Amino acid sequence: MKTLSKKLLKLILLVITFLMSTEILAAPDIKIENAWVASAEANDDMSVAYMSLLSNEDLILTLVTSPKIKTIEMHNTIQEKGIMKMRMAHEIKIYHNKLFEFKSGGSHLMLMDFKGPLKTGEKIKLTFHFKDKKNQSFDKSIDAAIK
Q1: pTM of the prediction?
Q2: pLDDT tens across 58-92, in order?
Q3: Vertex 64 angle, CA 139 and 108, to 5°
Q4: Which residues, listed in sequence order, are joined to residue 53 by a DSSP beta bridge?
């Protein structure tokens, strides 16, 4: 009876430890919605992507990649001396429960160096690379509609 109780206690402790570790190691909940990419012909070499991001904690977006697109840059649009200009962002902060939007006239993703056209009606995989407040990295992939 004593050994059964010890084994049961060890099993319960193991399960509790596992549940705690998976909660600690679980990636933050980030929602990426309304993602779309502007269509591009075979001879085009640039396009743009827009979407909204909402996270349950503060995150830093460090990079966006795609198997079909060689270069994806994060850009911010700023007004400088009355002129709108694009500036490449090396990181973008996504604040806890605050909607961040890549949108026309604001922050956006510039897509360059395609492997073939971006055809309307198709989808393209985008992978977002993040760091959380503990400086741990994680990725989230989505399929963005091409419009």
Answers
A1: 0.79
A2: 999 999 999 999 999 999 988 888 888 889 999 99
A3: 130
A4: 32, 100
